[in-house]
Each structure stands twice: as C-alpha cells, then as structure tokens.
Amino acid sequence: MDDRRPAAPRQLGVQLSLVILVFIVQFLVLQYWFSSDQELKSLREEKLDNVMSTHEPFVRAAVMYLPPAQADKFITQLRWFRQSWLTMHEYEPELWRTDIVVFTSTSLIELKELGCVENPRSNVQEPNKCIVIADYKKASFPEFNYDFADSINVAAVNHPWVEIYDWVLRTDIDTFLTPAFATWKPSTMAVGFGQYSFDGYDTNDRLARIMKDLDMQPAELDNIGSTWYGARQLVQSCANMTMEMMLYLNKNEFTQEEKNAEYGAKGWPRWH
Ligand SMILES: *[C@@H]1O[C@H](CO)[C@@H](O)[C@H](O)[C@H]1NC(C)=O
Q1: For residue 243, which atom of ligand 1 is closest to its CA?
Q2: Which of 67, 129, 168, 192 has the most CB atoms around it within 10 Å of its CB?
C-alpha cells in the first residue's frame, strides 16, 4: 500500500538524470555539428579566396642561399629545384609570377648556364626568371660561426631586388616545388613541419622559459620547420627575429663545452 510512496522521489531522480543526460548529449551533438560546419565553411571560404586570387597579379620569389664554397653540391641541388620550378610553371595562373632568387657571394658560370641572370625583375609582367644576387655578404658575427645561418639571413635582408615581391618562399635548395604550389596562396603565412621538441624531453619547456625571460608571448606552435611561405615583409621580420634569437641562444643558452666542435651532436635531440 505505502510501498509506492518512497519510489516516487527515486523515479523523479532517474527522470531528472535522463533529462540532464539528453541535454548533455544534445549539447555535444550541437557543438560537434556547428564546429565542424564552421570549419568546413572557413575551409570553403579559404578555397574560394584562393581561387579568386588566381585571377589577380601575384608575384612571389623562392629565396635561397647558395654557399659558394660548396658550389658543386648545391648547384646539383639547384638543378633539381629549377626543374621542379619549370614544371610547376605549366600550371601557374596567367597573372602569377614565381622567381628563384639565389643569394651567393660570387658569379658562378654554372648559374649562368642554368639561365640565371644577375639583374632584377623589372616589372610584374616579365616572365618567371632565375635571379642571382652575387654580392651577398655572409652574416658574420663574432664568436658565432654557423654556416646555415645564412640560409635564414638571406630571407631577412631586404635587398632592393627583392622589394618587388608580394610573397616570399624561404626554402633550402634541396627541395622541390610541386604543381600544387602553382595555384596556392593560403590566407596566412604557412610553415613546414620540423622536429626538435620530442616527447619525453624538456626542450619545449626550456624554450617557453626563454620566451618568458624575453617577455615574449607564449608560443602556440612548436616544431616549426625551415620552409616558410608568406607575405614578404612578414617572412622578412620572422627571419630577422630568428637571426636575433640564434645569436641570443648561442650567447646565453649553450655552455662553452656544448659549443665546442668536439661536442658535436651529443646534445641532440634535447638541446643541440
Ligand atoms: C633586424 O632588424 C633590425 C631593425 O631594422 C636591424 O637593425 C638588424 O640589423 C636586423 N637584423 C638582421 C639579422 O637582419
């Protein structure tokens, strides 16, 4: 007789839980639905912007450093890169131009043979060309001799011949352009993937601590690679800052022992 009375609050509890559960599921489904819809939408917008930009003039340059001391090795690499550039060009929009800009410190006959010239692009209509800046002065810093620094430094120098470019691709020479690059203009600067912050190592924490020392904003990206593609001035300021940071890290975050040639790659993959 009375046995149904105590059951009522329990049923109410079950019903309430069910209602709450339904709300939670609904919330999650809606959240999923709207977020994926929004991502799709922005992806679609980005694609549309990209397609529209292929009907407008766009002048870009692949900027690279060729160490004259190892010219043979790097000219072989440049031959491959150049070939991929020629192939890529077959797919390029009519109003787009893509030059190769090679920084080096001497006139090399092999570059002339490849059709690379020592004069700048004169206007945005001129066909794609391979340009050599042969009077580049190596970045030399006291107590700091790192050959690869020049491959970043060339992207930092605002040489007058580079001013004509809307966008710059900072790349090493041992790379290729694919046909997809022919029509690719992302909405923001794009960078490749590199690997230096590994699970189980404190490399990222250490970088975060250094950024805090320098009053910088916390980083939201890690493992940034060495290929950068973006608006010229932005790439130039990133390269400039990278150079400053290289000097800073070399001065403050490596011991004398770590800087010795004999130490070699012992610091890898933690701090190298
Ligand atoms: C970076 O930019 C500053 C300010 O324009 C300049 O003084 C400095 O020389 C640049 N550094 C490099 C490595 O280009």
Answers
A1: 13
A2: 168
Q: Is 243 in the pocket of ligand 1 (CB under 6 A)?
A: yes
CA 7 vs CA 15, 16, 53, 163: distances in Å: 12, 14, 68, 81
Confidence of residue 190 (pLDDT cuts 50, 70, 90): very high
Q: Is the CB of 168 under 6 A from ligand 1?
A: no
> Which among 240, 241, 245, 247 is the best mutation to test ligand 1's pocket, defined by most ligand atoms within 8 Å of the CB?
240
Say how many Å lie between the CA of residue 73 and the centre of ligand 1. 30
DSSP state of 60: E
Atom from ligand 1 closest to the CA of residue 157: 14
% of the chain at pLDDT higher than 70 = 87
Q: Which fold has domain 53-191+224-263?
A: Spore Coat Polysaccharide Biosynthesis Protein SpsA; Chain A (3.90.550)
Of 6-15, 110-119, 204-213, the one with minimum mean pLDDT is 6-15
Residue 55: its pLDDT value, please? Answer: 95
Instruction: Describe the strand order of the beta sheet including 58-65 as a list of residue ranges.
Output: 130-133, 96-103, 58-65, 167-170, 224-231, 190-193
Which of 244, 246, 249 has most ligand 1 atoms within 8 Å of its beta carbon, as the pocket-test mutant?
244
Give per-residue pLDDT as tens, 69-88. 999 999 999 999 999 999 99
